[in-house]
Amino acid sequence: MNLQDKKIAVLLSGGVDSSVVLYELVRQGLQPDCFYIKIGPEEEEEWDCSSEEDLEMATAVSHKYGCKLEVIDCHQEYWDQVTKYTMDKVRAGLTPNPDVMCNRLIKFGAFDEKRGHDYDLIATGHYAQTEVDEEGRKWLCTSPDPVKDQTDFLAQIYDWQLKKAFFPIGHMMKEEVREIAEREHLVNAKRKDSQGICFLGKINYNDYIRRYLGEKAGDVLELETGKKIGQHRGLWFHTIGQRHGLGFGGGPWFVVKKDMKTNILYVSKGYDPQTAYKQEFKVKDFHTLTAPLPLNAEVTFKIRHTPEYHPATIEPTGDGEFIVHSSKPIHGVAPGQFCVVYDQQHHRCYGSGEITL
């Protein structure tokens, strides 16, 4: 790809990854335009938010390389679209992933509507790669850094968004990116990576849910015996497979089931209860990135942001849904999670669908 002929927008977040993206492009003689997407919380004074510091960092880095920085306010779109998606899923007892929808709806969505449509490529600091096959199709491909790889967060973007997506540091390991940032004296070279949901900053996820859904107390029962263990404050604060933060004595306890109708949380005892594992589960609304899912063929998948890929086959059920047959039982499979499917070598990503069990 000849980048000299392309109009490039760089999304600066204030973090080290997107800053090194800008350095890499300037090093190649390019002068991209930089954008900071504002999606911070509603009443800033009520939230311990790091967005002000993010913007300061993004401004400093863009000035260092003589690039203009424009702030794009996607606040309303975020709360109308991503927050609504998250709360609807949580209220239904599911386990959503707001970061996945943020990429589709905001970084490559609302931004494109506002400014991105003027550009050929939108460059981000994601740890992911792309490649074009012999038929001219562009694929989303994994990063060589298995811990940092972010293809699972990108597996719901539309094909037209993938065509514009550009990941200049996707072929690097995190340590390389840090080394470049320190060598180039970037202001955020030693800044910690953000953890958790992209817009929450230092806000606790449960506090975020509590703000919108409140609390709804109910019983906690041991699945095997029906014995009451304690009370929960709301099923939406818990996810299948959860072990930490339950606060019940005599454990460890694992969350294995949520009954939304009766408002009962079911738990199992032990470090590895079999009830916390599943080897087969259903997936609906599969979103394809480049080419159709190979059915009844060997693939790999992941259900959460971890370095592990699990071998499996995908069987169609005839109603637009699929059954994933994992080669081994998987811990913590939860409805609402995205099952992200890759080729056998976990290199090319086919896309993702929502787990329904």
List keywords for this structure.
17 strands
Which value, in Å, is the CA radius of gyration? 21 Å
C-alpha termini separation: 42 Å
Strand order of the largest sheet: 12-15-14-13-16-17
| SS field, number of helical segments | 8
Strand content: 25-35%
Characterization of the model:
This protein is α/β, with parallel strands linked by helices and 357 residues long. The chain is 25% helix and 27% strand. It has eight helices and 17 strands. The strands form three sheets. A six-stranded antiparallel β-barrel has the order 12-15-14-13-16-17. The protein has a five-stranded parallel β-sheet with strand order 3-2-1-4-7, sandwiched between helices. It has a four-stranded mixed β-sheet with strand order 9-8-11-10, with no helix packed on it. Strand 14 and strand 15 form a beta hairpin. Helix 1 (16-27) crosses helix 7 (174-183) and helix 3 (75-91) runs antiparallel to helix 4 (98-114). It is globular and about 65 Å long.
List the helices and strands and how they pair.
Layout: E1 8-11, H1 16-27, E2 33-38, H2 51-64, E3 69-73, H3 75-91, H4 98-114, E4 121-123, E5 129-132, E6 138-141, H5 151-154, H6 159-164, E7 165-166, H7 174-183, H8 205-213, E8 218-222, E9 228-232, E10 253-259, E11 264-269, E12 277-288, E13 298-302, E14 310-316, E15 322-331, E16 338-342, E17 348-355
Parallel strand pairs: 1-2, 1-4, 2-3, 4-7, 8-11
Antiparallel strand pairs: 5-6, 6-17, 8-9, 10-11, 12-15, 12-17, 13-14, 13-16, 14-15, 16-17
Helix pairs in contact: 1-7, 3-4
